[in-house]
């Protein structure tokens, strides 16, 4: 069926979650080496709430237009190919989701990609460069698949990107997942499927129980046990955890340094001139890294080859992303408000259209 001439999309003026608005616009047409994708499901990320509230401003190279289509993670179906596209696959039969970068994440991807001024994905149809469309494993629903390009790939890169090609996390390693949001639950699922041990921290005992069902071996409520770094050391016979999904930032990073294994990895996901930072009178972060020979690595999502590597692993292990709640397209505002409330476990999804074609 031909795409409609007019489509609906959720827009934000970056002036508050309550000001998100659903508007009509013309359906875009694909140009050279582009495809038109009918959006089926959009999963929500914390960043989407930051953008809608005008708080996503730490990338200085990024200039947001005054109004922008909301949300950045989706899957759908290719329904039209640009007139000069060199796409050699059969796009009409390829359920697809978007990729945020090419072979490697570059500064230009930050400035021009989904974190930047590009229109995002909470819309019924969207044009993508052909290269940025990847086939979805067929065991997944649309809602599940929409959780993979950002949240799961960020978890995959946090766990595996510092290893030699072809090596992934495995038994004998312990992963520390902070909280039970989308990135952390994906890391828990990958670690469990790979035979690694997982420690999960959360503000909620009931969410910790859900994490246990997904294979978490050590559960820590960081509200009732604010000195959770001591529990991590106890659970690992004082060795510390091998890999950290550091999403907490200001209140967690120093604790992570206190319970990371010698030679371990803190994947900094969330946020030289002397040994003490003058503004805080605290030991400089670089020195903290040296004390335990730790690599501090920023993780900015990931490239196509690592997404495809991750998808092969997901397919082999049949990992299904955990979807906490599915909202209708018309409930876009309520969905983002629900995510911002922090009540969710893993992912929140907006169903834009029925699956499959
Ligand atoms: N670098 C990248 O490429 C990339 C990609 C995706 C996300 N991110 C960043 O990663 C972070 C998580 O994103 P997300 O989409 O997974 O968020 P999310 O789904 O909204 O998850 C938020 C969860 O984080 C947990 N949390 C909050 N404060 C915490 C603390 N002090 N200690 C431990 N856990 C805490 C809470 O879990 P409980 O409710 O269980 O306490 C909360 O539910 C955000 O800062 C986001 O911007 C970065």
Automatic annotation (TrEMBL):
Residues 16-350 form the Enoyl reductase (ER) domain. SMART domains: PKS_ER. It comes from the Eukaryota. One of its GO terms (molecular function) is oxidoreductase activity. PANTHER family: OXIDOREDUCTASE (EUROFUNG), PTHR45033. This is NAD(P)-binding protein. It comes from Bimuria novae-zelandiae CBS 107.79.
């Amino acid at each position: 069926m031909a795409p409609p001439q007019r489509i609906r999309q959720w827009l934000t003026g970056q002036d508050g979650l309550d000001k998100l608005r659903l508007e009509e616009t013309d359906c875009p047409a694909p140009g050279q080496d582009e495809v038109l994708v009918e959006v089926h499901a959009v999963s929500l990320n914390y960043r989407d709430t930051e953008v809608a509230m005008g708080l996503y401003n730490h990338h200085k190279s990024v200039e947001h237009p005054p109004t922008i289509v909301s949300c950045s993670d989706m899957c759908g179906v290719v329904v039209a190919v640009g007139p000069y596209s060199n796409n050699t696959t059969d796009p009409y039969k390829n359920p697809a989701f978007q990729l945020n970068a090419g072979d490697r994440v570059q500064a230009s991807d930050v400035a021009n990609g989904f974190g930047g001024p590009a229109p995002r994905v909470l819309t019924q149809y969207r044009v993508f460069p052909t290269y940025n469309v990847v086939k979805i494993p067929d065991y997944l629903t649309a809602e599940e698949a929409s959780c993979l390009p950002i949240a799961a790939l960020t978890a995959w890169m946090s766990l595996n990107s510092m290893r030699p090609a072809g090596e992934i996390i495995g038994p004998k390693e312990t992963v520390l997942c902070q909280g039970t949001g989308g990135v952390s639950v994906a890391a828990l699922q990958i670690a469990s499927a790979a035979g690694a041990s997982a420690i999960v921290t959360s503000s909620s005992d009931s969410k910790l129980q859900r994490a246990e069902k997904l294979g978490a071996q050590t559960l820590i409520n960081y509200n009732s046990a604010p000195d959770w770094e001591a529990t991590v050391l106890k659970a690992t016979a004082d060795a510390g955890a091998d890999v950290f999904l550091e999403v907490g930032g200001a209140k967690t990073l120093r604790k992570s340094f206190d319970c990371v294994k010698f030679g371990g990895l803190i994947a900094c996901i969330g946020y030289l001139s002397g040994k003490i930072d003058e503004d805080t009178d605290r030991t400089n972060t670089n020195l903290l890294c040296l004390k335990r020979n730790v690599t501090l690595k920023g993780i900015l999502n990931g490239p196509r080859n690592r997404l495809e590597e991750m998808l092969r692993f997901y397919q082999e292990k049949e990992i299904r992303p955990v979807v906490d709640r599915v909202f209708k397209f018309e409930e876009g505002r309520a969905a983002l408000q629900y995510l911002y409330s922090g009540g969710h476990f893993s992912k929140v999804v907006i169903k834009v259209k029925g699956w499959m074609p």
